[in-house]
Design a protein that fits this description.
3 strands; mainly alpha; single chain; three-stranded antiparallel sheet
Length: about 650
C-alpha cells in the first residue's frame, strides 16, 4: 500500500509539477511577439509574422523596465525608432550619407509592427511595394515615378511579373541612396554605366570596349554620353520598337547636330520623321553600342564593312551602292562637287522661274482687274451660237489622267519634302502612312509614264502616219518660236497700259511653257525617281553619288513642278479674271465661237481664210458634261491650292 501511495504520490507530484510548468510557460510565452503583461495595456498591437514575429516586445523595447513600467509609465521614455532598429540592423553608416538620413525607418518600411521581409510581396520595400513607397515622396517631377511606370522596366515587373526586372533600389541602392550629383551615387555620371551594366552585362562590355562613346568616357571626357544620356533616366523604353525607334535621330542629334541635319534631309531621315518604322536610323548603320569612327576598321561604317551594313536592309549591294552619301550636304562643294553643281543649277532654275512668273502674273492680275472694272473683259465660258472644238476626246481624257496622277504624286511626295511641317505628317497619315503613300506614289508614276508614252505615240502617229503638218514646228506646234517672244513683249506693254493685248495663235507662250514644264518634268522627275526607286540597278552602272544627284533633282524639280502648276498654271488657265473661277474647255473640249475669236484671233482668221472654220464647229456640251467638268475641275483646283498654301507656308516659315 505504501508503495502504491508512493507511486501515486510520485505520479501526482510529477503531474502537478508539469502542470505548473505548463502554466508558467503559458503565462510567459509571447503571443505574436507580445507578452501578456504588455497586452494588458497594449491590446491589439500585433507584430507581423516575418521577420519580427518571434520577437518578444522587450527584444526591441529594451529600455522598458517591466518591474516599474506598469506603475510608472513616465519612468521609461520611448526609445528612438532608429536606435531600436540599430540594435540589429547596422545601417547607420550608410544612412548618414544618404539623402534619406532625416527619415525614420518606418517612412519606408511601414509601421514598426508591420515590417515584412523585402522578399515578401506584401512588404513596402518589395520590388513591387517600393514603387508605391518611393512615390509617396517622389511624385514630382512627374518624370520620376510616372516616367518609371511608363518604362520597359516597369512593364517587365508589373505586367510580365518578372521580379528580376529593376525597381527603385536596384538602380539607386537601398540605405546608401545619394543624389545623382554625388560622385558616389550609383546613378551618378561616373557610376551609372556600371549600375546599368549589372543587368545589361554584354551591352556594358560593348560600350566600354568597342565604342567611341565608352572610350571617350574612359579617357575622362566630360561630354561623352553614358546610359542615361541616350536612354533617359526613369522613362527607359525599348529602343528598337515603335515610336522610341523613331526618336533615335533626335537623340543622337542632341550631340551630333550637323550629322543629324544632313541625315534629316535624306529619304531615311524624311521617312523616319513621318513615322516610317522600317527606315534606317542612326543605330541601324552605326550600331547602338559599338559605334566607332568610319576610319576605324572595326566600325560598321568603315568602307570595308559598308556592303554588310547596307546589305542588312538592301540585300546584296555593290561597292558603288555603298559610295552613296547618306549624309549628303548639297550646298557644300567640298563634300561633293557633282552634287553641289547640280544643286546650284536646280536652285537657280527654281528661283528664276518663280521670280519671273511671280512678277509676270502679279502684273497680269492687276491689269486684268482693271480691265474687268473697265468692262474690257465681258465674255464667259458659255453662250448661244456655235462652239469650236479645241481638244479631242483623247486629249481631254489624257488631261484628266494628268490631273489625277499629278495630284497623287504631289500629295504623296510633298510630305517627304516638307517632312518637318505639321501638315506633312497629317497628309501622310491620310494615305495610311509613308509605306502606303510610297506605293500610291509609284503607281501614279507608272501611270504618268503611261500617259507620256500615249501622248508621244499619238503625236508621232499624227505626224508620220497622217502626215499632219506643223505639229513639230509652226503655228500648230507647242515648240517655242520667235513670235512667242514678241507676244511676251506685247503682253508686258499691255500690263503697263502701253498697248493692246497680243494677238494669239493656236497656243500662247505661257501655254507652251506650261506644256514643257510637264514634258520636262516627266522626263527629269521620272528618271531621277526611277534611280531612287531602283538604286541597286542604277549603281550597277553609275557611281553612288548619282543617287545623291537624283535625290536633289527629284526633290527640287518636284517642288518646281508642283509650285508652278498649282500657282502659275492655275492662274494662267482658271484664276485670272478673264477665266475665273474655272475654264472648262479642257473637260468639255469646246469653246464658244465668240470667246475663241477673241482669245485666238490669228487661228480664227486662218480658219476663216482657209474655209475650215465650220469643220471645227461642234455642238454645245451637255449640261451633265459641263457640270461634271466643273465639279472635277473645282475639286482639283481646291486640292492644288491647298497644297500650294502648304508649300508657301513651309517655305516662308
Amino acid at each position: 500500500m505504501e508503495r502504491r501511495w508512493q507511486a501515486s504520490g510520485g505520479w501526482l507530484a510529477g503531474a502537478l509539477a508539469g502542470g505548473g510548468l505548463l502554466l508558467l510557460l503559458g503565462v510567459a510565452a509571447p503571443t505574436g511577439g507580445q507578452e501578456p503583461a504588455c497586452a494588458d495595456c497594449h491590446d491589439g498591437v500585433a507584430v507581423a509574422a516575418e521577420p519580427h514575429g518571434s520577437f518578444a516586445c522587450t527584444d526591441c523595447h529594451t529600455n522598458v523596465d517591466t518591474a516599474v513600467h506598469p506603475d510608472s509609465p513616465d519612468s521609461t521614455p520611448p526609445l528612438a525608432e532608429a536606435a531600436v532598429c540599430a540594435q540589429c540592423h547596422d545601417t547607420a553608416g550608410a544612412l548618414e550619407a544618404s539623402v534619406h538620413a532625416p527619415l525614420a525607418c518606418s517612412d519606408c518600411h511601414a509601421a514598426p509592427h508591420e515590417v515584412r521581409r523585402p522578399a515578401d510581396l506584401l512588404s513596402t520595400v518589395s520590388p513591387v511595394g517600393q514603387i508605391k513607397a518611393c512615390a509617396a515622396c517622389h511624385s514630382t517631377p512627374a518624370e520620376t515615378i510616372d516616367g518609371y511606370l511608363a518604362s520597359v522596366h516597369a512593364r517587365a515587373l508589373l505586367s510580365a511579373g518578372l521580379l528580376l526586372a529593376p525597381s527603385c533600389n536596384d538602380c539607386h541602392g537601398s540605405h546608401d541612396i545619394r543624389p545623382p550629383s554625388d560622385p558616389l551615387s550609383l546613378v551618378s555620371r561616373q557610376n551609372v554605366a556600371t549600375t546599368c551594366g549589372s543587368c545589361h552585362v554584354l551591352v556594358l562590355e560593348d560600350w566600354q570596349r568597342r565604342s567611341a562613346h565608352g572610350r571617350a568616357f574612359d579617357a575622362g571626357s566630360a561630354t561623352a554620353p553614358v546610359c542615361v544620356t541616350c536612354h533617359a533616366g526613369h522613362r527607359v523604353e525599348e529602343p528598337t520598337r515603335g515610336e522610341q525607334r523613331l526618336k533615335t535621330p533626335q537623340t543622337c542629334g542632341g550631340c551630333h547636330e550637323e550629322r543629324f541635319s544632313t541625315y534629316a534631309d535624306t529619304f531615311h531621315g524624311q521617312a523616319t520623321s513621318l513615322g516610317f518604322l522600317t527606315t534606317a536610323t542612326c543605330s541601324d548603320c552605326h550600331t547602338p553600342h559599338r559605334n566607332l569612327p568610319a576610319a576605324d576598321p572595326a566600325s560598321s561604317v568603315h568602307p570595308t564593312n559598308l556592303e554588310a551594313t547596307c546589305g542588312a536592309c538592301h540585300g546584296a549591294v555593290s561597292a558603288a551602292f555603298t559610295s552613296f552619301d547618306p549624309h549628303a550636304h548639297p550646298s557644300s562643294r567640298e563634300r561633293s562637287s557633282q552634287v553641289y553643281w547640280v544643286w546650284l543649277a536646280m536652285t537657280t532654275l527654281l528661283i528664276g522661274v518663280f521670280a519671273f512668273f511671280g512678277v509676270h502674273d502679279l502684273l497680269w492680275l492687276q491689269r486684268s482687274v482693271v480691265g474687268r472694272l473697265r468692262g474690257e473683259l465681258t465674255l464667259g465660258h458659255a453662250g448661244e451660237g456655235p462652239y469650236v472644238r479645241r481638244f479631242s476626246g483623247l486629249e481631254s481624257l489624257l488631261h484628266v489622267v494628268v490631273i489625277l496622277t499629278f495630284l497623287t504624286l504631289a500629295s504623296t511626295g510633298l510630305p517627304l519634302k516638307f517632312h518637318d511641317a505639321a501638315w506633312a505628317g497629317r497628309l501622310a497619315t491620310l494615305f495610311g502612312g509613308v509605306g502606303a503613300a510610297r506605293t500610291l506614289h509609284r503607281l501614279a508614276a507608272i501611270l504618268t509614264f503611261g500617259y507620256f508614252v500615249v501622248h508621244v505615240a499619238h503625236l508621232s502617229f499624227r505626224a508620220l502616219a497622217r502626215k499632219e503638218a506643223g505639229l513639230l514646228w509652226g503655228w500648230r506646234s507647242l515648240t517655242p518660236r520667235g513670235k512667242d517672244l514678241a507676244d511676251l513683249w506685247q503682253n508686258l506693254k499691255y500690263f503697263f497700259y502701253l498697248g493692246k493685248r497680243p494677238r494669239l495663235d493656236r497656243w500662247s507662250y505661257w501655254e507652251k511653257f506650261d506644256y514643257f514644264a510637264v514634258f520636262w518634268g516627266v522626263a527629269i522627275i521620272g528618271l531621277s525617281g526611277l534611280a531612287l526607286w531602283l538604286p541597286k540597278a542604277f549603281t550597277g552602272v553609275f557611281p553612288g553619288w548619282v543617287l545623291n544627284v537624283a535625290h536633289v533633282v527629284h526633290s527640287d524639280e518636284a517642288l518646281l513642278a508642283t509650285g508652278f502648276i498649282f500657282i502659275f498654271h492655275f492662274f494662267h488657265t482658271h484664276l485670272r479674271p478673264e477665266s475665273f473661277p474655272l475654264d472648262p474647255v479642257i473637260f468639255t473640249g469646246v469653246v464658244p465661237l465668240a470667246r475663241f475669236k477673241e482669245e485666238r484671233p490669228l487661228e480664227y482668221e486662218r480658219l476663216v481664210r482657209t474655209g475650215q472654220l465650220e469643220a471645227h464647229f461642234a455642238p454645245p456640251p451637255t449640261r451633265a458634261r459641263r457640270l461634271a467638268g466643273y465639279l472635277f475641275g473645282a475639286s482639283a483646283l481646291t486640292i492644288g491650292l491647298l497644297l500650294a498654301v502648304a508649300i508657301l507656308w513651309s517655305l516662308l516659315g
